[in-house]
Write a structure and sequence with these properties.
Strand content: under 5%
Radius of gyration: 19 Å
Order of helices and strands: HHHHHHEEEHHE
Largest sheet: 2 strands, antiparallel
Helix content: 55-70%
Structural class: mainly alpha
Strand order of the largest sheet: 1-2
Shape: globular
Distance between the termini: 30 Å
Number of strands: 4
Low-confidence stretches: 125-133
Length: about 210
Amino acid sequence: MAEEVLDVMQRDWMRDERVVPFVRTINNIHVVEESRHMRFARDDVRERMEGSSRVRREIDAVAIASAAYVIVSSMVSPDCYTAAVLDRDRAVREAAGNEHHHSMMRSSCAGLMEFRGSVGALRGGPGPPGHEGHRGVPLPGLPFDEAAGVVPNDHGRVEGMPGTYVVGWIKRGSSDGIGANRADAGQTVGALVDDVVAGRVVARPRRRLWVGSR
């Protein structure tokens, strides 16, 4: 679970040109290594959840929620504020009331929670009503993960195809509903804007934004 949350942050750090090159390189190595770990872990969770009882799922949901709270609330040590020559107590209070801080914490867990929800490891079932039977299908010219039924991506950026983006169930799998799609689209648009500002996207006559699945 911790690897999933850290992976989101490490992907941001390895792309951020404000981070020193050595740290960016280390994070890049971690992302490559942990991607394999997370794939194995997700496959194992899917296998274990198949046929599990309702009681087992309820116990897992409570355990996951508790572990997620401990992990995320421990991500930032108050000591970092002291190291930055800030008033530690005031900085902790400011962070606790800062919506951007909370938004970043939520986004770092979004992928993990969506996956857990899709396999029925969270309360509320494996997905939104009517999601059963829906699965992403390959799209011409885009890579495709047959096992997960999605286009491999990082925050909506299609892997290996700079300037190409996806949103919706083809991005994350058939989990959650309209509300999640709006947040999902916001994440992809945010990634696109970041790429434009950083000069990673070169203007072309036509650009495609693949949406959804059938």
